[in-house]
Amino acid sequence: MPLDPASQMVLELMSEVGVVLDVTKSVDEMRAMLAPDPEAELPPVGGVQDQVIPGPDGDIAVRIFHPVGSDDADPLPVVVFFHGGGWVIGSVESHEVPVREMVNLTGAIYVSVEYRLAPEHPFPAAVEDCYAATVWVAESAASFGGDASRLVVAGDSAGGNLATVTAALCRDRGGPDLAFQLLVYPCVDADPAAWSSMEENADGYFLTRDSMTWFYDHYLGADNRTNPLAAPIHGDLRGLPPAFIITAQFDPLRDEGEAYADKLRAAGVACANTRYDGVFHTFFGMAAAIPTAAVAQADAAAAVRAAVDL
Questions:
Q1: Are strands 109-114 and 58-66 parallel, antiparallel or unpaired?
Q2: What is the rounded CA–CA span in Å between residue 119 and residue 218?
Q3: Count of structural domains within the chain
Q4: CATH code, domain carrying 100
Q5: Which is the catalytic residue, given 129, 147, 156, 251?
Q6: pLDDT in tens, 76-103
Q7: pTM
């Protein structure tokens, strides 16, 4: 199907206001482009707590979100969330709106992680930060009302990459145990030439083939392109937690996300995946403007709730 009218309108507006992944820009300019409006109204949640936790090479900032009505609740499942942005841009703040929406849709606590960014901190700095944050959550969940026995990792785009890589590290390093992984249009390979959707959706839909190459170059350099901790589709997927993978029709990352779902299933991992037609990369965080995003969020929340018995 063609790009849906709501998505077309959003893309046109993004272009008008300069929200464009222009690879001729500097890293600082790209980060500023994605910075949120500090005056924007945020969806209400039950509570927000900023905390600094120990990391492998210095402290890591996290933001803990409680759902509405959780004050007197029993310990709640916890979703450890890693934001997108190609491992180079993005932040807890840039992804706060969809996180808040998912907090209330799932009824779970979310811990959003401010992992280190490339190129200042190239691979595997972000991976190690995300794993360390997940370990901290498992060990500290009771201190903020969480239930460490119902632990989920989640992320979008590069954050989806970090979520599934963290799941592999939890398996390989003896824990913590995870109940589920929610992967929203994850980047799971580092070879743009390998996927038809990179050619079909190379330009015109916010994320471009050239911008993915720019992200890979800043994060990985010339090395590690098939390292499973950078490109998990090349790894051993046996023993990973069940997954739900979201892809978008007009997304350069579409085909690798769907191939990753197939590879998970072939490895014996329960994995559902849904392609949402008529939409583009980043649509999941735009529920206020794109109706399909609200559908995808509801589907994702239902999958998380089922996985953690909510």
A1: antiparallel
A2: 5
A3: 1
A4: 3.40.50.1820
A5: 251
A6: 999 999 999 999 999 999 999 999 999 9
A7: 0.98
